[in-house]
Amino acid sequence: MENIPLPDVGSTLTHIAGLSPTAQLAAIAALTVVFGLLVWTRRPIPGPDAGTVVKALELTAQSQAETAASMATIARTVEGVAEDVRAVAEDLRSLTHAVLTERKEVA
Question: DSSP readout, the chain?
């Protein structure tokens, strides 16, 4: 349907001029319908309007801000856990050192 050839307008008008007045009106109406359908089928597909695009961008920015806040909270939590692990490791080192020192004294 993309390569429909357009008819010769001059020839078409000559043929219509030879018809009776009623047939001329019917031919013009039919040509109008055909031309209207041709234009209608080749119109561009409408996309989203500007308001929809702006709203989508606002929602995207809001979700990115919320994600950044969540990631900051997670980072603080991970840092707290890392500090706890460091403290436990230090306690383990000191306890291990105490146990080893006590065994040396016993032996």
Answer: -TTPPPP-HHHHHHHHHTS-HHHHHHHHHHHHHHHHHHHHHTSPPP---HHHHHHHHHHHHHHHHHHHHHHHHHHHHHHHHHHHHHHHHHHHHHHHHHHHHHHHHH-
